[in-house]
Amino acid sequence: MNIAVVGIGRIGLPIAVKLASRGHQVVGCDVDATRVDLVSRGGNPIPGEAGLGELLSRVVHSGNLTATTDTIGAVASCSTVLFAVAVDVDANGRADLTNLEAAARAVGKGITPGTLCIFDTTLPVGTTRNTLAPLLESGGLKLGSEIHVAFSPERLLMGRVLEDLDKYPTIVGGLDSEAGRRAARFYIEALGTTVMTLGSAEAAELSKLAEGVYRDLNIALANELACVADIHGVDFSEVREAANSQPYCHLHVPGAGVGGHCIPVYPHFLVQGEGPSELAALGRRINDAMPGYLVDRLETVLGGLGGRSVIVLGLSFRPNVDVTAHTNAVDLLHALRERGANVYGHDPLLNDDAVRGLGFQPADSLTGFDAAVVHAYHNEYRDLDWPALAPLIVDARNALDPEGLVNAGVRYFGVGRPLR
Questions:
Q1: Cα separation of 198 and 202, whole Å?
Q2: Is the pLDDT of residue 48 over 90?
């Protein structure tokens, strides 16, 4: 097959590489000329993505994958176009579709009759049908007869996209039944995946939002219960283990908020759409409040934060990736500074300029602080000299071993874990 992937970022590029590795002719389209040039030479712009570098080099040098900034020209020779353009929220908490809309207009000017277009970026319900699909008619072709449109949400975790492409069923929903059938056949033939075909694009859009909101709300519930545990001096980790021994309970791990491109964003897509969304909005408020809550506890333990030196370890939104989108490390920074602390940041996956770009003062060394907040527990932190780092360790993700830290001679507390 001849396939275009529009948007070769952290999701689109691994998808394009995977398709090319299965023998298809794939062209990756992007407005970032620097990225296009690097990919065209077989260079990997996402070094933290497992298995991507070697596979990317192979498919580029075999000729199965090319890259271009000329989206209009590229899609003219493709039978299928996948959209993997990132969508975030704007200052008002609504989906910012600017880049995706521009991509849809460009594709509409280049595609030929019979082209299948699939949007796989998570969207508010109804966006594929009401906003994006009409833009594909910019070149004069008609939806339903000459252009077939479907929605298929990516269900992938950054850092292991290639692995996840083989792990979970692919969800598809068409603007009509023919588009749904074509999209399902494409994924079966192109990727060899198991496909679940839903009755409409809207059903597929809602299925992805349901996944994300479920996780956000479950984390919010865990965070509320952890706050109750703190009041009573109870270790929530053992409470969670006990509760989850019953097969109908699936409590998540509490922590200092929720970061990344996905989970803190998708509830906003539900809130801005039609239908009730009070619970989704409440979950966002609870999780957004957790960095401040954790800093309040730290202030109480230290008897004040004015003039105290505090280092935040791990500034990315989760361990072992260099992604800082919506990272709660920044929320911790603001809360600490509001209380008068001198705040430093460290992340082995980021250079000093990136650390400063988040607002942190880079740490010269990992010694001599009044307290350390572990936000993303990267593998590089596993052999730290904790007593030299700080006399108090705050576990913002409940990722550490409290017993080991206390035995090493430092004080410890986590989210829903008492001071030890």
A1: 9
A2: no
The residue type at 39: V
Amino acid at 87: V
Write out the residue limits of the CATH 3.40.50.720 domain(s) in the chain.
2-199, 207-420
DSSP-derived 3-state class of residue 377: coil
| The pair of three-digit structure tokens given for residue 303, joined into one six-digit string | 């008897």
Is the Cβ–Cβ distance between 137 and 107 less than 8 Å? no
Checking 29-35 for CB contacts under 8 A at 24+ apart, the result is 29/4, 29/5, 29/67, 29/68, 29/69, 29/70, 29/71, 29/74, 29/75, 29/103, 30/6, 30/67, 30/69, 31/69, 31/99, 32/69, 33/69, 35/8, 35/67
For residues 91 and 32, is the Cβ–Cβ distance under 8 A? no
Q: What is the pLDDT of residues 266-294, one digit of tens each?
A: 999 988 877 788 999 999 999 999 999 99
Parallel, antiparallel or unpaired: strands 25-29 and 2-6: parallel
Which fold does the domain 2-199 belong to in CATH? Rossmann fold (3.40.50)
User: What is the reported pLDDT for 166?
Assistant: 87
Alpha-carbon distance 352 to 325, whole Å? 17
pLDDT tens digit string along 60-82?
999 999 999 999 999 999 999 99
Fold of 207-420: Rossmann fold (3.40.50)
For the chain, the first-to-last Cα distance in angstroms comes to 60
> What pTM, to 2 d.p., does this model score?
0.91
At residue 188, φ and ψ (nearest 5 deg) are -65, -45
8 Å CB contact between 90 and 97:
no
